[in-house]
Design goal:
Elements: H1 13-23, E1 34-37, H2 43-49, E2 54-58, E3 71-73, H3 79-88, E4 98-99, E5 105-106
Parallel strand pairs: 1-2, 2-3
Antiparallel strand pairs: 4-5
Helix pairs in contact: 1-2
Length: 107
């Protein structure tokens, strides 16, 4: 059995995310927050990023619960590949290297 303990205060992961974005001056139009989570306590953060960023729920076996996240990964093993794809999404495509006849690579 798993017990989730939460303090009796008006605070959750969504509010924490908003606070971090504010303190770090990231609450701007040119910033796209990405939130990846795997349990019910992450739902508040998925709601915060729903219209302004990427909310990604990480599912497990037989996990078909409703979520406010727009995207999902099938299991935790997919997180690394997702982050790799995400980090390279803004990079311009690399040009193939062309080898010159004398062995010098062209730029």
């Amino acid at each position: 059995k798993v017990f989730e303990l939460r303090p009796d205060v008006e605070w959750d992961k969504g509010r924490a995310l908003l606070r971090l974005m504010s303190v770090l001056a990231l609450d701007r139009d040119d910033v796209v927050p990405v939130y990846v989570g795997d349990d019910l306590t992450d739902e508040d953060a998925f709601i915060v990023v729903r219209d302004r960023g990427l909310g990604v729920v990480v599912r497990g076996e037989a996990d078909d619960r409703p979520t406010s996240a727009r995207y999902s990964l099938a299991n935790p093993e997919e997180i690394g590949a997702f982050l790799e794809e995400l980090s390279s999404a803004g990079e311009p495509p690399r040009s193939p290297r062309i080898e010159e006849p004398d062995g010098v690579e062209a730029l």
